[in-house]
Amino acid sequence: MQESYYSLKNQGKQPKVIGLLFYKTPWDEAPSNHFAVVLKEDAYDFVVDPTINQFYPLLPEEAIISTLDEWKALMINKEGCGKSSVVIMNIFDTPSLAKDVLAQPFDTKGRYFQSSLIKKYNVEFLKHGTNFENCLIADIDTITKKLKTLTNTLNKYSETGDPERFRAIKSLHTETKGDLDKLMALKSHFSIFSPDEIKVTHSIKSGFKKQILKYSVPTKDIKALRSTGDARGIISTFSGKSYIKIQKNAWVNVEQSEDSSFWITFQGQKKLLMRFDEMKEKWFFPALAAKA
């Protein structure tokens, strides 16, 4: 990679270095790395990757040069890069800078969000699955709780009472706050919502809520969400399910059938037919109304 970079540099070109991190899953503690050279010529980005044959040994020799889009496609489809993999790309000005950040990926503390790579706009995620969003929300929850505990502990110490202990806790507090800021930047960048951000729906009357509560699941079962909900109170998860939040810690799974009807489902079975009244902006449950 360095030889290609400096060869182009000596020709008066302005090459840059692409650095990749490959995580088998979002929880991968030892991501692998890869480097290549990228060059803009005539409004096109070309990649020079002298070691691409380690991933694709049958490619012809001329395949070391490709367009950036072609190269990205090869990287996210290489052997070992599965549906749960996370592939992060960044572009650096020099080989030394790229290697300083990526040469020892285990120094990134074993999480995709912990590296100095993670800034809001200069990192491109070439690939990630739904585990990524779910892991992100779970980690935000964990680190938020950790930060709250550290804040409370820090308030119990004074710098004059035990300076060494105070500085140690303050350092850990600062580091944890930095981790949370990186996570929140990623959350915003990908427009991911957590269950705690969702308001309890007003589209189901309280009497119906009490009757359907037995079909609900707790908040801990709800993962990353795509939005805060539509006019009917339906929120979709990244894993493809849809829910309505009926209480602070109660959600019902809603499915739309082929005939466009909606059902509350529980433990994989359809339980209650539901219809939305556009005029009243309320859900109606024929079976429950018949019993009333």
UniProtKB/TrEMBL annotation:
Matches recorded under Pfam families: Tox-PLDMTX
Entry superkingdom: Bacteria
Domain Tox-PLDMTX: 2-97
UniProt name for this protein: Dermonecrotoxin of the Papain-like fold
